[in-house]
Design brief:
11 helices; single chain; 7-stranded parallel sheet; alpha/beta; two-stranded antiparallel ribbon; globular; 280 residues
């Protein structure tokens, strides 16, 4: 099976479909920071043109690391980041932060950390249940109109929430959990496909999938590939709007992931994997 290798986010922002999730690059130590710089730079060397980060990843430290590693950014590289969550010392360690003034401040902070004049893809990390949706997305729309954002995306939303958001502003991407075993958000993927919206599956690799699903290992053996590569190849074949963003802090795993873009499943192999979804 063949699949397109690129996608135009928002209709005009072209990226290679297999991206990189920077979440695992945690510069808490000098050693970790040095390793993270190497991995981020190597991702670009391998041809990655979409890197996903967020304020929540190290509370800005992940964005700082990417800027240190890659600025000035090569032409065509898209750094997508997320706002809408603030750090707290209680509960789960974070809280919703969707008030318009707070969103505006978060975008300005991200621009400074990433050393950008405009964020090409700015995603709302979570919808704030305490703030009317039109207020949250209206603030991002205003920032887009001011030139600080190019395209607006969402994360962890339902079809109903996506429809409500699209009534306020154009939505270019959705980032929900999805992989060969976990398809809870299948309906959201289908809605994105129908509307030409990029779907960025977070956790694109199901934990222990190869150990629990012999079919994945069997297909990997047939193709001379790894189970990880097979799982990513299935995502790329699943829909042309799917943009997987596997994350790693390992050079070896990075190279393994990126190589999956060249893997081609047969129709029988795809169908075998397609039947593996674990019921919610």
């Amino acid at each position: 099976m063949t699949a397109p290798t690129t996608f135009r986010i928002g209709g005009d922002l072209e990226v290679r479909r297999l991206g990189f999730g920077a979440m695992r690059l945690l510069p808490g130590t000098a050693e970790g920071r040095a390793a993270g710089l190497v991995v981020a730079r190597h991702a670009v060397e391998l041809g990655v043109t979409l890197i996903d980060t967020a304020h929540m990843y190290g509370w800005g430290a992940n964005e700082d690391l990417l800027a240190e590693a890659l600025h000035p950014y090569p032409e065509g590289l898209v750094i997508a980041t997320k706002v809408g969550i603030r750090h707290t010392t209680s509960g789960e360690g974070w809280r919703h932060a969707g008030e318009p003034a707070d969103l505006r401040a978060q975008v300005d902070e991200a621009l400074r950390r990433l050393r950008l004049d405009r964020i090409e893809l700015l995603q709302l990390h979570r919808l704030d249940p305490g703030v009317p949706l039109p207020d949250q997305l209206g603030a991002l729309r205003d920032l887009r109109d001011e030139g600080k954002i190019r395209h607006i995306g969402l994360s962890e939303v339902t079809v109903t929430e996506l429809d409500a958001a699209r009534a306020v502003v154009d939505i270019a991407s959705v980032q929900n959990r999805y992989n060969v075993l976990d398809r809870e958000h299948e309906a959201v993927l289908k809605a994105c496909e129908a509307a030409g919206i990029a779907f960025l599956p977070w956790r694109p690799l199901a934990p222990d999938a190869a150990d629990t699903q012999p079919a994945i290992t069997a297909v990997a053996t047939e193709l001379g590939a790894t189970p990880t590569q097979v799982a990513l190849a299935w995502l790329l074949a699943r829909s042309p709007v799917v943009l997987p963003i596997p994350g790693t802090a390992s050079i070896a795993h990075l190279e393994e992931n990126v190589a999956a873009a060249d893997l081609r499943l047969t129709r029988d192999q795809y169908d075998l994997l397609d039947r593996l979804a674990v019921p919610a």
